[in-house]
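User: Here's a chain of 317 residues. Predict its fold as tokens.
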Amino acid sequence: MNFKKYVLVFFTLLAIIFFMNCSRFATVDQWNTNSLNESSLNSPVDDNQLDEVPLPQMNPQPSPQPMPAPSSVEAWPNEPKNFKVRIDCGFETPTCDGKLLDPYKTAGNNLTTQMDMTAPLSGPHVMRSTENYKTGNGGTQLHYIDKDLVKEIYVGFWWRTNPEFTGNSPNANKTFFIRGTQGGQNGVFYLRTNPGDPKVLYWSTQMANNLDQCHGAPDQDACWPNVNTTPIVPGKWYRVEVYMKASSCPTCHDGAVKWWITPKGGAPLLQGDFPNFAYGPLVNEWLWSETWDGAGNGAGFSSDPAHFIDHLRISMP
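Assistant: Prediction complete.
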């Protein structure tokens, strides 16, 4: 056998030995792994050992971010741009932390706050004013009075009744007033609830010298929507916006009033647009009062009626 054959045999033997050792090591590693798995399955788990096991690194998920608050234009689309905010209240308390006057001390009684997750703007807190229909009294009287000589005012709020609201027997349910503190003015927005007819929000100056504007009853004018009419469905939320300009004197026909209604999830619709009103010379008071303890009011309900307000905004030049 020559030298080349010896070399070939030598390297062949080395290759055989190498592959045999690799096979043996693989078998041992596999056996050790299987033994570990069986031991783990059959042995109790030590909670302290779990803390030592490194967890796989996961990509952190971003935390849910709160929805941004709507801008002033989105929240109050018909508020004049040059007006300054006087009240911006979400009713965490019934009187907006004392910014609204409660002369009859109704807070905590007929006037409360409650949680309402359906509130469109600043929930879950909402104001609730209710009546005891059996006794025929209740409700509240909340005032905002500005000390300045206010000639123009914007009022906006989200409002609903309770779903069972039918309307009282006179079918003219008072809601809120905008007037001047100098006296002689008592304009109010009514919720008309004639049986069989859609419920409608309308305005009255309660002054006979405006009959040429709205053609109302002999003792007061009834200004029905003259642009669009949005029916009010009990229990549904609506944004109400009002712009009012006082007349230069109590009998001067140079005042104006406009109001808009936005159903929750809908678009604002101009309801009434009445220029040349005699209603002044101030509009520095906003007042919520259902006058449920008045003559005849409260009769006709079969359950306690209630009004809810989600947010109140009042601004002026």
